[in-house]
Design a protein that fits this description.
Blueprint: H1 2-16, E1 21-30, E2 42-43, E3 45-58, E4 63-68, E5 73-78, H2 89-102, E6 110-116, H3 126-141, H4 148-163, H5 170-177, E7 182-187, E8 193-197, E9 203-209, H6 217-238, H7 250-257, H8 262-286, H9 290-307, H10 313-324, E10 328-333, E11 341-347, H11 351-366, E12 371-375, E13 382-383
Parallel strand pairs: 4-6
Antiparallel strand pairs: 1-3, 1-13, 2-7, 3-6, 4-5, 7-8, 9-11, 9-12, 10-11
Helix pairs in contact: 2-3, 2-4, 3-4, 3-5, 4-5, 6-7, 6-8, 7-8, 8-9, 10-11
This protein binds 2-deoxy-2-fluoro-alpha-D-galactopyranose.
Subcellular location: Cytoplasm
Site (Transition state stabilizer): 28
Protein name: Galactokinase
């Protein structure tokens, strides 16, 4: 992290000859509760020790001058002329600017340099981290007076409306509200949340990165979301009180969807089961029953792979091998899917041997390497 911090400052000084402020916004892990956020259910994410850094300072004109230090790329536009960029990375910044302007906030132009150590496309939420870093830093330099939840919502809407991914609120919420050594039990309907201690003696959160970049992710993600909505509209014909899948029971899914399309039935069944699983997993945490918690992670993987169909052969292979390791208490694919990481709870004393075996097996089967990240749970978005 220190490297990205230094890089944004030095690049900023070289290019703009000014002193910036620096904001860091972390990536996230999610222990359990996948594809539940946009169905108004629960999630259990945490901010981690990998993040996006932004060095930023306002200008007197309306020029927005951006540098992506890791990509060695520049983008320049104005507050009047900005538009979607085929280069992609500027969109996560311009999308937030767009939301703030639409909300009637007064901005001038600004200079900004970004860098980070959240691997891109690995399901650790680099895009949400960037959006949150931008929202937080603009709020600070222009003194916009937005609270943390408003910043999260602006960042999410930037992704929905400018980038085009109909994501839920989990990633942005985790990045901003993260708390060292705690996971966040977030109710995505009421937006009430609780910090649950997650500092388990002798257990590490390890991410096995399949190195598959999820190219299908945004299109298939939006398809999953509309399949869930279609399921809800069918259930509503019999149960008008059901507004989202959060309100549905397995019995309703069986009665109303069993004889409709298999896809709709499977997607909705998974979401209703996952919500229930998360609540039980939180009970496991309270009782310190990490074995039972871990078993639920494997069950989530099964659901994501077979019912929700957002996994891929590489992720299935990693999760299946994890299950054979006695030092891994639970594992599952994490995030939107179609690539990215498997998250695993691994006994600390055996991390090195386990990682080596998992990497070797992956290489033998897939003929490619796998990156592994041993993460720590850290605080959310902050000024440095
Ligand atoms: C992506 C989205 F951005 C989140 O909102 C969430 O839906 C997640 O996929 C799946 O749980 O990270």
């Amino acid at each position: 992290m220190e490297q990205s911090h230094q890089l944004v400052i030095s690049t900023f000084r070289e290019n703009f000859n000014q002193e910036p402020i620096v904001v860091c916004s972390p990536g996230r892990v999610n222990l359990i509760g996948e594809h539940t956020d946009y169905n108004m259910g629960f999630v259990l994410p945490a901010a981690i020790n990998k993040g996006i850094y932004i060095a930023i300072k306002k200008r007197d004109d309306d020029v927005v001058s951006l540098i992506a230090a890791d990509l060695n790329k520049k983008h320049q536009t104005t507050l009047k002329d900005y538009k979607y960029s085929d280069d992609n990375w500027p969109n996560f910044i311009l999308g937030v600017v767009d939301q703030l302007l639409k909300a009637g906030k007064h901005l001038s132009g600004f200079n900004a340099v970004i860098s980070g150590d959240v691997p891109l496309g690995a399901g650790m939420s680099s895009s949400a981290a960037l959006e949150c870093a931008v929202a937080f830093s603009l709020n600070h330099i222009f003194d916009l007076g937005l609270d943390k939840l408003s910043l999260v919502q602006k960042a999410q809407k930037a992704e929905n409306e400018f980038v085009g991914l109909q994501c839920g609120i989990m990633d942005q919420f985790a990045s901003v509200f993260g708390k060292k050594k705690h996971v966040i039990k977030l109710d995505c309907r009421s937006l009430e949340y609780e910090y649950v201690p997650f500092d388990i003696e002798g257990i590490k959160i390890v991410l096995f990165d399949s190195m598959v970049k999820h190219s299908l992710a945004s299109s298939e993600y939006n398809v999953r979301r509309s399949q869930c909505e279609e399921g809800v509209s069918i259930i509503q014909q019999t149960y008008p009180q059901v507004k989202t899948l959060r309100d549905a029971t397995l019995e309703m899914v069986e009665t109303c969807l069993k004889h409709t399309s298999a896809d709709i039935y499977n997607r909705c069944k998974y979401v209703v089961e996952e919500n229930d699983r998360l609540l039980k997993a939180c009970e496991d945490l309270k009782h310190g029953d990490i074995e039972s918690f871990g078993q639920k992670m494997y069950d989530t993987h099964e659901g994501l792979s077979k019912l929700y169909e957002v996994s891929c052969p590489e992720l299935d292979f990693i999760a299946a091998n994890a299950k054979k390791e006695s030092a891994i208490l639970g594992a599952r694919m994490m995030g939107g899917g179609f690539g990215g990481c498997v998250i695993a709870l691994v006994k600390e004393a055996e991390v090195d041997e386990v990682v080596k075996r998992m990497k070797d097996l992956y290489f033998q089967k897939m003929n490619k390497g796998m990156n592994v990240y041993i993460t720590q749970i850290e605080d959310g978005t902050r000024i440095l």
